[in-house]
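re: the backbone from monday

yeah here it is again, tokenized this time
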């Protein structure tokens, strides 16, 4: 990929929700398995004890509510910070990454990027474990361009 490489993106509420859901599912898959086991135990206990053990319903209840809560919190976060997600211009040069948006201008040296990750919907440039720059895959022409971009980033970090 030739530098400078420029891309202008706009992250939508659906993009942000997809990102958060993917991260939650990857990190909490064990919670869903435990929840399923508790639901099975709950229904078995209904037949054995002829009573309801409400404690066994806590984890399944949480796992059912979690996606709805996540959607609500994502919508709230997006509405409060919508100017951070629209019309972001990235320019990737030999030395650094320039970011220009409606609310701010910034530059990041390549050494500040810790690693790059390819998600099912995004290329993520991580500055640390909590902060990543999201670039939706729809802004790349094809898989080859994505691969070249990731290779270029890996050479620089």
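seq for it, each position gets an aa:
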């Amino acid at each position: 990929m030739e530098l400078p490489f420029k891309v202008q993106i706009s992250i939508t509420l659906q993009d942000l929700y997809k990102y958060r859901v993917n991260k939650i599912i990857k990190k909490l898959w064990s919670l869903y398995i435990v929840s399923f086991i508790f639901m099975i135990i709950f229904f078995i206990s209904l037949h054995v004890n002829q009573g309801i053990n409400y404690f066994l319903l806590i984890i399944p209840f949480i796992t059912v509510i979690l996606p709805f809560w996540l959607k609500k919190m994502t919508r709230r976060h997006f509405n409060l910070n919508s100017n951070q997600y629209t019309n972001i211009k990235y320019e990737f040069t030999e030395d650094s990454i320039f970011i220009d948006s409606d609310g701010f201008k910034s530059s990041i040296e390549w050494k500040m990027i810790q690693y790059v990750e390819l998600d099912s919907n995004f290329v993520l440039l991580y500055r640390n474990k909590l902060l990543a720059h999201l670039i939706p895959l729809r802004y790349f022409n094809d898989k080859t361009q994505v691969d070249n971009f990731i290779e270029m980033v890996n050479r620089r970090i």
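The chain has a mean pLDDT of 84. The longest helix spans residues 13-49.
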